[in-house]
Amino acid sequence: MAVLDKTKSGSPPVIENDAPPKHGINHSTLKQRLATYKHHPASLVMLIFTLLAALITAAFVVFLIGYILVMGIPNLSLDLFAWDYTKANGSLMPALINTLLMTACSLIVAVPVGIFAAIYLVESTGRGSKLVNIIRVTTETLSGIPSIVYGLFGFLCFVTTFHWGYSLLSGSLTLAIMILPLIIRSTEEALQAVPDSYREGSFGLGAGRLRTVFKIILPSAVPGILSGVILAIGRIVGESAALIYTAGTVPEAATSLMDSTRTLAVHMWSLSSEGLAIGKSYATALVLLVIVVGINALSGFVAKKLAKG
């Protein structure tokens, strides 16, 4: 943006261009930043710590992925994808099917409840309400509870009290309760990020509250809601402690909601705990990593498409 600067001596105005350069940072901007860091050493220290933290995080991620690839690829074989599990082949196919079923059942329960709860907190109550504050504190408290506690609760409630036993249903409901705070919080933040002008414009055109929420607010908040669902899927796929107490460790594909099952994470834990198939557990970890990355990539692609639409 061009700015006219008139000098006191009446000389012709000087045009200062404060638009960002097309190719990176120009020399004058770089000199200004260096001068700022020279006069404010605390800013330079914070910049160094920020860059260092980013590099350490990236290094850990690269090391973890590289380690899984190096240890998992040599142990991949066709026997791991056999339909039936045996001690000899250590097939992960039943656990893979159970993981998909467990994820679908948990999301079917948790996503609608979480979204409608967030709509109530943001759209249906006054901001700053005591009831809203209580619900938010409760949600944040639930999000910090360890997964093993959820597993014990699911065992006492679904397995023992309801007499459902170790089953796909018990594990799915336990995971649904576990990811519910995450979905509520992410959906609430996505709804709050929608500008109030959208609501005011909709109300000004004569739309009711429900029509405004479902036709205007929710479509605008879909990318943020999907981000929460992606995080929830990652937690479901990688969960093992809660499922050991609720779903069991039977290495067979579930044929009904009342069958005891084993997910990929529990399958990997079982193989490594036995100590006889460590290589196959690394191969299972590799498959689990590929699934999580694929789900994240697919969800991100869908979110971008919905945002453009």
Walkthrough of the structure:
With 309 residues, the protein is mostly helical. 70% of the residues lie in helices and 3% in strands. It is globular, with a radius of gyration of 26 Å. The chain starts with a strand and ends with a helix.
Structural class: mainly alpha
What low-confidence regions span 5 or more consecutive residues with pLDDT below 50?
1-23
Largest sheet: spatial strand order: 1-2
H-E order: EEHHHHHHHHHHH
Our estimate of the beta-strand percent is under 5%
Query: Kindly state the mean pLDDT as a whole number?
Result: 81
Q: Helix coverage percent of residues?
A: 55-70%
Please identify the oligomeric state.
Answer: single chain
Count of DSSP strands: 2
The biggest beta sheet is recorded as: 2 strands, antiparallel
Annotation field: number of helices? 11
Which outline best applies? globular
- Measure the end-to-end span: 31 Å
Rg on CA atoms, Å: 26 Å
Question: Main attributes?
Answer:
about 300 residues, mainly alpha, disordered N terminus
Topology:
Layout: E1 2-5, E2 14-17, H1 27-39, H2 41-72, H3 93-122, H4 130-143, H5 147-161, H6 168-192, H7 196-204, H8 209-237, H9 241-246, H10 264-274, H11 278-308
Antiparallel strand pairs: 1-2
Briefly say what this structure is.
By secondary structure, this protein is mainly alpha-helical. The chain is built from eleven helices and two strands, in the order E-E-H-H-H-H-H-H-H-H-H-H-H. It has a two-stranded antiparallel sheet with strand order 1-2.
